[in-house]
Structures are given as structure tokens and as C-alpha cells.
Design goal:
Layout (H helix, E strand, L loop, with lengths): L13 H12 L5 H8 L3 H13 L3 E5 L3 H5 L3 E6 L5 H9 L6 E5 L4 E6 L3 H15 L4 E12 L11 H7 L23 H9 L8 H8 L3 H13 L5 E5 L8 E9 L4 H9 L4 E7 L5 E7 L2 H12 L4 E15 L2 E2 L7
Antiparallel strand pairs: 1-6, 2-4, 2-5, 3-4, 3-10, 5-8, 7-9, 7-10, 8-9, 10-11
Helix pairs in contact: 2-3, 9-10
GO molecular function, one term: sequence-specific DNA binding
Pfam families: AsnC_trans_reg, HTH_AsnC-type
Protein name: Putative AsnC family transcriptional regulator
């Protein structure tokens, strides 16, 4: 029986969290498959997902290829005068090549991820931002290596067995191409790009809806999606306010790690359940990690109990006050609408 009880703190209930975790494993999983693994009815899953999607509490978007996106990506930190953080953050969020924007605690720093090509990036850094007159100081850190990004984080509501049961099954290997080790990405034609673009802001669009939007047979859509999925080009990300999952603190940690321990430290942090992003970067520090914690006490424990033994020589902690844009999606909660 499905019972929906309102949480006085505004948190998602247990089943909703399990649904979020299921979508984190496979953003295109069908309700029937989720229902079978979670032990509830398909009708319940469909109704719950419809409510979560309908209210905007949860969205599933397509993420670009992780390794390709990381090459040339920049982490941007802007120091701004009091009262100017929100306009700068919203202006950055309006740009297509900026998928992540946060306003940091204190209201005088804006953080963003820039994926634009070199000309667009240079126009932003050397033209548009200085022209505002509202940027007191800026720092751009080049991404040197990706250990984990936001699509790899799981909210911890499923058992390992349930997660394994929901994991997408790899397709049969074509001759000479073992699964997980393709000799190369397939060349993409115009239809492939249109299909990927159509999934960008709603990665759960059905085969029929995609076929109708692109004016191609549904069988073509299914075949193309299987091929794109096998090539690792259908990564999805669940956009959900972490506060709905009981996460009270979102923090960016700028770390200085001994060079000889950088790879091991990055890999260890990437596997930690509280971490939702780890990158090796240029700049005064050489590693940055994004961390979810229930509260400030838990963030303190993370620093002392997790970072301490990993060879971190120095840590700067920047706490997110407001997430403005995540994975290319502007968050309505930022402005209260």
C-alpha cells in the first residue's frame, strides 16, 4: 500500500528517496523495472514519479561525456561586492556554456563551471565579466583530471543489491569491441546530435515522444539510443535540491595534496558517499571536492576523519549558500518561484 505522509521539514519520504536513487542509477529506467526492484506497484512508481517531475522537485537531464567535458573546463571563482552576487550568478546561469553556478556563504563569492569553447570562454573572462564592474577579483582554475562528477553521486537509499539490479545492462559486444572498452566512439551524424539535444533537458523522454519530435520512426530512435548508450553518451544526472534529501550543507573544498598522493587521494574521495565531485585542478591547490553533509558538525568530521588521513596539507572550505544552476538546469528555489 502506498502512503504519502507530508514531512514537516519538507523532506522527501523514504519511497521518494528510493525513487531518486533508482533514477541516479539509470535515469531512463521504466516505472515497471523500478517497481520490480523496489517491491512496489508500477502504478505507485508512475504516480510518485509524476508528482516529483510535475512539481519540479526532481528532473533528469543528460550529462555530456565526462572526460570530453572535463578537458578544457574551468572552475571560476568570483569575488563581488555585497549585494551583487545574485545578479552576477543569474547572468552566468543564463549562459549555455555554464552548467553549474553557486552563490557562496557570505554573499561575496560566486562559483561556476565553464564548459564553453575557447573563444566564448575568453569573451566571458576578458570581456563580459570585467565590463560589469562588479567583479572585484576572479580566479580561473583549469580542470586537469576528472575523478568523479555529479552524475556519479548516489543518495544512499537503495541497497547494493537493488542498485546492481537497476544498473543498465551493457549491450552485446560487437566483434572486436569488448563491452566497456570500445576501440573508439562512433562517428555522430546530424540525427545523433539532434537526439542527444532532445534529451538534454529531459532525459526521460519516451521513444515515441522522441520519434515524434524528430520525425523519424520509433525503431530508429531505439536503435540509435542503444548505440549511443553503448558509447557512453547517454549519461544522466538527477537534479534534486539536496535539502529534500536531508543534506543541510553543500561545500566546495579546495585542497593542497602532496603530488605523490594526488591520484590516490582523488580516487579515495571519489568513492566516498558524501562526495559529489572530485577534480584535479590548476592553481594554489591541486584538488577540489564537492561534499554533501547533514550539518556543519558532519562537515567538521569529514575534514578531520576523512581528509586528515589522506595527505591533505591544507584545506579551504567554501560553503554553498544557494545553488543557482545545476547540470544546466536553473533552480526555481533560488528566487523562490
Amino acid at each position: 500500500m502506498d502512503t504519502e505522509t507530508a514531512d514537516p521539514a519538507g523532506l522527501l519520504d523514504g519511497l521518494d528517496r528510493r525513487l531518486v536513487h533508482a533514477l541516479q542509477v539509470d535515469g531512463r529506467a521504466e516505472p515497471g523495472r523500478i517497481a520490480e526492484v523496489l517491491g512496489v506497484s508500477a502504478r505507485t512508481v508512475s504516480r510518485r514519479l509524476g508528482r516529483l517531475f510535475g512539481t519540479g522537485a526532481v528532473r533528469v537531464v543528460r550529462m555530456p561525456d565526462a572526460r570530453a567535458a572535463a578537458l578544457g573546463a574551468l572552475l571560476l571563482r568570483l569575488r563581488v561586492p555585497p549585494g551583487r552576487a545574485d545578479p552576477i550568478a543569474l547572468a552566468l546561469a543564463a549562459l549555455d556554456g555554464v552548467p553549474f553556478v553557486d552563490v557562496m556563504l557570505g554573499g561575496q563569492e560566486v562559483s561556476a563551471v565553464v564548459l564553453a569553447d575557447a573563444p566564448a570562454r575568453d569573451r566571458l573572462l576578458y570581456g563580459r565579466l570585467p565590463a560589469t564592474g562588479a567583479v572585484l577579483e576572479s580566479a580561473a582554475h583549469a580542470v586537469l583530471h576528472l575523478f568523479a562528477d555529479a552524475s556519479a553521486w548516489r543518495c544512499g537509499a537503495l541497497t547494493p543489491a537493488e542498485e546492481a539490479a537497476l544498473a543498465p545492462q551493457p549491450p552485446s559486444d560487437p566483434p572486436g569491441h569488448p563491452t566497456g572498452h570500445p576501440a573508439g566512439r562512433p562517428p555522430l551524424d546530424a540525427l545523433d546530435h539532434r537526439l542527444l539535444d532532445a534529451l538534454g533537458r529531459d532525459a526521460r523522454r519516451s521513444h515515441a515522444a522522441l520519434a515524434g519530435a524528430l520525425a523519424v520512426p520509433e525503431s530508429t530512435v531505439r536503435r540509435r539510443l542503444r548505440r549511443l548508450g553503448a558509447a557512453g553518451l547517454l549519461r544522466t544526472h538527477v537534479s534534486v535540491d539536496p535539502r529534500l534529501l536531508g543534506v543541510g550543507v553543500d561545500a566546495n573544498l579546495w585542497l593542497d595534496v602532496e603530488p605523490g598522493r594526488l591520484a590516490a587521494t582523488g580516487a579515495a574521495l571519489a568513492g566516498h558517499p558524501q562526495v559529489h565531485g572530485v577534480l584535479a585542478v590548476s592553481g594554489p591547490g591541486n584538488l577540489t571536492a564537492a561534499v554533501f553533509c547533514p550539518d556543519h558538525a558532519a562537515l567538521y568530521r569529514f575534514q578531520t576523519e576523512v581528509l586528515g588521513p589522506l595527505g591533505v596539507r591544507r584545506a579551504e572550505t567554501a560553503i554553498v549558500a544557494r545553488a543557482v544552476k545545476r547540470a544546466g538546469i536553473g533552480l526555481r528555489r533560488f528566487d523562490g518561484r
